[in-house]
């Protein structure tokens, strides 16, 4: 089985590489911008013709949420046009497309976990471009799995966990928002779920295609997440909780973006790990 992974140098791409040895029956083809530019349809066709993958996992994304507000065209190219190109080339080669999306497609006004069927209402350029990517895939190729996730972190690349550890080494005190509620997702757990989907006996059944939510279990604020990181690392720092209004950013964040994972648990038999347990695992790997 050939599985082509885009965005291989990002944290999810690196997480897939981290667990790849557990799947000797899969031939992984890792591509990043240099090997395959997803914004270039002809480039995609050339790579697909060479490797003829049964699955394509698109982890490539423009994820600089605030920067996207001033780089709308670049965000659109990578987050919307890229997935559209992949959907079209997957259709040409009859490749199943697994695509990663985000909690930022929601406006955050809910008080209960978001289901896959809830109406998106993105409040940022990043969220809108990610939704546009979802819609382009749905329009162009039925054999797709879109996985919406949230607050992704790991021992790889840049993310909240590593930023907190860096800031703690530079400062005596830190202020983190306490009124945005969501769920951290360990990228390696997400990678394992993608592999479970790829190897599922029902993946070729039309009823399995569509949108799924995945994150770790539980919920917290960014302040809670930071506090847990420092607690596990035994870092003593003056950690202050502040409201979002005290930390204005170019892009608006959802104030609540917990995802309902009932569907992915039921359809693919996924067992979720608590976010605190996975945080310990990631921090141990960081050591």
What this model shows, in words?
This protein has helices spanning 11-19, 41-51, 72-93, 125-140, 160-170, 187-198, 222-232, 262-268, 275-286; strands spanning 2-6, 27-30, 55-58, 96-102, 144-149, 152-153, 173-177, 181-182, 185-186, 210-213, 220-221, 238-242. It is an alpha/beta fold. The strands form four sheets. A six-stranded parallel sheet has the order 2-1-3-4-5-10, sandwiched between helices. A two-stranded parallel sheet has the order 6-9. Strands 7-12 form a two-stranded parallel ribbon. The longest helix is centred in the N-terminal third of the chain and has 22 residues, at 72-93. The two termini are 34 Å apart.
Which helices and strands, and how do they pair?
Layout: E1 2-6, H1 11-19, E2 27-30, H2 41-51, E3 55-58, H3 72-93, E4 96-102, H4 125-140, E5 144-149, E6 152-153, H5 160-170, E7 173-177, E8 181-182, E9 185-186, H6 187-198, E10 210-213, E11 220-221, H7 222-232, E12 238-242, H8 262-268, H9 275-286
Parallel strand pairs: 1-2, 1-3, 3-4, 4-5, 5-10, 6-9, 7-12
Antiparallel strand pairs: 8-11
């Amino acid at each position: 089985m050939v599985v082509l992974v885009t965005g291989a140098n990002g944290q999810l791409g690196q997480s897939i590489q981290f667990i790849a040895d557990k799947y000797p029956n899969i031939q992984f083809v890792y591509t990043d911008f240099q090997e395959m530019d997803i914004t270039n349809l002809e480039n995609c066709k050339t790579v697909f013709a060479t490797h003829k993958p049964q699955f394509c996992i698109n982890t490539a994304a423009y994820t600089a949420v605030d920067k996207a507000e001033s780089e709308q065209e670049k965000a659109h190219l990578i987050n919307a046009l890229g997935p559209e190109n992949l959907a079209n080339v997957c259709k040409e080669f009859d490749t199943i497309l697994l695509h990663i999306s985000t909690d930022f497609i929601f406006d955050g006004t809910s008080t209960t976990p978001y289901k896959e069927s809830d109406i998106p209402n993105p409040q940022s350029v990043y969220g809108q471009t990610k939704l546009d990517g979802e819609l382009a895939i749905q329009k162009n190729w039925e054999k797709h799995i879109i996985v919406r996730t949230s607050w992704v972190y790991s021992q790889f690349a840049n993310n909240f966990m590593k930023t907190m550890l860096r800031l703690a080494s530079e400062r005596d005190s830190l202020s983190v928002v306490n009124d945005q509620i969501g769920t951290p997702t360990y990228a390696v757990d997400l990678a394992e779920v993608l592999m479970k989907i790829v190897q599922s006996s029902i993946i070729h059944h039309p009823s399995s295609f569509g949108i799924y939510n995945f994150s770790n279990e539980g919920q917290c604020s960014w302040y809670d997440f930071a506090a847990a990181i420092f607690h596990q690392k035994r870092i003593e720092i003056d950690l202050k909780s502040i409201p979002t209004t005290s930390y204005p950013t170019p892009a608006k964040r959802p104030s609540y973006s917990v995802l309902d994972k009932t569907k992915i648990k039921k359809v693919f038999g996924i067992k979720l790990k608590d976010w605190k347990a996975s945080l310990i695992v990631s921090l141990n790997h960081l050591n």
